[in-house]
Amino acid sequence: MLNPNASHAAHHSFILTGIPGMPDKNLWMAFPLGFLYTLTLLGNGTVLAVIKADQSLHEPMYHFLSILALADVGLSMSTLPSMLSIFWFNVPEIPFDACITQMFFIHGFGVVESGVLVSMAFDRCVAIRDPLRYASILTQGIIGKIGVAVVTRAICVVFPVPFLIKRLPFCRSNVLSHSYCLHQDAMRLACASTRINSLYGLIVVIFTLGLDALSILFSYVLILKTVLSIASRTERLKALNTCLSHICAVLLFYVPLIGVTMIHRFGKHLSPVVHTLMANIYLLLPPVLNPIVYSVKTKQIRSRIVHVFQRTRNRV
């Protein structure tokens, strides 16, 4: 292990943290983490395969769901190398450039996921408020442009982060707080002013995640206004039921994010284990649960998966 007090000129790597204060317990986390990553790949892979195979699912909502599944897989794959390195091979050291690369992809896929959730809120808003023009508004071309815009925004927003980190001198401890590299975590180890980094991070949070959350909220205000104007109680429930999966996905993304932010800002007195647990929940929970939520709550996907399993069972 490197000397925590060495300068950046003397070392070119960080030390990642497994379970704070309990390094001997890291091995016990290897199998649960392996199971979660396997579940993530199987769940999102199944959703993608079902949507691709079933022509009846080639609709705007399911195209956005495909993009969400790809973002979830990308986010999981961004954390997988360092997680496996620590918990499976007991190698906590990560090269400086690899850390910055991982940082870029973690934050990038996080912004992509937030953008996709906004797109899905727009999809539900159009479907409920203007169902007759739904197909003509959300055409294949428009969906493609929205997808490109979401990815482009994420790249543009996160692109300065590696350069902002790379310009900082690191002459304090090189031990990070988590099992992966985050901008705010690496930034606190610098021995120079991080005002620019902090300011840029705040601007990104406000103008991406903050505006995305407000956009989703505004979409649901419009949706509720429309739904409450429907005379039939059955029709109201049917309309709201089409939004349940998306609402669950939004909560799975934003609730852990808010929790991590609050603990980071106001929970410095809490145990490091709490910080690590919340950070892992924020990055691991949505990719695992999103495909489960959509498989359970979306009748078309659920019936298709059941049909595939029944056909496989009959062949056996």
Can you lay out the helices and strands and say which pair or pack?
Layout: E1 13-15, H1 26-53, H2 60-87, E2 93-95, H3 96-129, H4 134-137, H5 140-158, H6 160-166, H7 183-187, H8 195-228, H9 233-241, H10 244-266, H11 272-297, H12 299-315
Antiparallel strand pairs: 1-2
Task: Summarize this structure briefly.
The protein has 316 residues and is mostly helical. It has twelve helices and two strands; from the N terminus they run E-H-H-E-H-H-H-H-H-H-H-H-H-H.
How many strands, what sense, and barrel or not for the largest sheet?
2 strands, antiparallel
CATH architecture: Up-down Bundle
- Structural class estimated from helices and strands: mainly alpha
Q: Unreliable segments (pLDDT under 50, ≥5 consecutive)?
A: 1-10
Record field, number of beta strands: 2
- Widest β-sheet, arrangement of strands: 1-2
Helix content, binned percent: over 70%
Coarse morphology: globular
Determine the oligomeric state from the structure. Answer: single chain
In the CATH scheme, the class would be Mainly Alpha
- The helix tally amounts to 12
Using only C-alpha atoms, the radius of gyration works out to 21 Å
Mean pLDDT: 86
Question: What number of structural domains do the residues give?
Answer: 1
CATH topology: Rhopdopsin 7-helix transmembrane proteins
CATH superfamily: Rhodopsin 7-helix transmembrane proteins
- How far apart the termini lie comes to 52 Å
Strand content of the residues, in percent? under 5%
The helix-strand sequence is EHHEHHHHHHHHHH
Transmembrane segments: 27-51, 63-88, 100-122, 142-165, 199-223, 244-267, 273-294
Main location: membrane
Subcellular location: Cell membrane; Membrane
Organism: Sus scrofa
